[in-house]
């Protein structure tokens, strides 16, 4: 079962509700026991964080976090030299704009972003 499907069930249990019928559990239910409640709310919190993390991962480009090949380095260097905009390169290579920018820095095409000498200077294409 996927976390996204399990989350509403665990939330219902933490709220003292039968996830199938929607009825409240009696006060003598094991779900009302303080340690069980703390454990359920902890599980809900962890599950929610994981679901949100997975949703963020799904929105990332396909090549996010993958190694750069020498061929891809050559292609983005050539694209940069020919005036291609960073957002366009990011789309074409299924990378984030930040990763394109960092790679161009590593390839010596852009100055290091942390270098104070280059702060507030426009980037020549």
Whole-number radius of gyration? 25 Å
Number of helices: 5
Give the tally of structural domains: 2
DSSP summary, beta strand count:
0
Q: Give the biggest sheet.
A: none
The level of helicity is: 40-55%
Helix-strand makeup class: mainly alpha
Query: Helix and strand succession?
Result: HHHHH
Mean of all residue-level pLDDT scores: 89
Uncertain segments: 118-125
State the end-to-end CA separation.
Answer: 49 Å
Q: Beta-sheet strand percentage?
A: under 5%
Your description of this structure?
This protein is mainly α and 125 residues long. It folds into two domains: 3-59; 70-118. Helix content is 54%, strand content 0%. It contains five helices and no strands. It has helices spanning 3-14, 34-59, 70-81, 86-93, 97-106. Mean pLDDT is 89; it is low at 118-125.
Features:
disordered C terminus, 5 helices, 125 residues, single chain, mainly alpha
Walk me through the topology.
Layout: H1 3-14, H2 34-59, H3 70-81, H4 86-93, H5 97-106
Helix pairs in contact: 1-2, 4-5
Q: Short description, anyone?
A:
The chain is an all-alpha fold and 125 residues long. Helices cover 54% and strands 0% of the residues. It is rod-shaped.
């Amino acid at each position: 079962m996927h976390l996204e499907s399990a989350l509403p069930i665990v939330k219902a249990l933490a709220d003292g509700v039968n996830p199938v019928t929607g009825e409240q559990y009696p006060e003598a239910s094991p779900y009302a026991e303080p340690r069980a409640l703390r454990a359920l709310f902890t599980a809900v919190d962890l599950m929610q964080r994981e679901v949100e993390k997975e949703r963020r991962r799904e929105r990332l480009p396909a090549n996010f976090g993958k190694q750069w090949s020498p061929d891809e380095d050559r292609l983005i260097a050539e694209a940069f030299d020919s005036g291609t905009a960073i957002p366009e390169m990011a789309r074409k290579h299924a990378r984030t704009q930040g990763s394109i920018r960092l790679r161009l820095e590593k390839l010596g095409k852009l100055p290091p972003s942390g270098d104070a000498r280059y702060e507030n200077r426009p980037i020549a294409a």
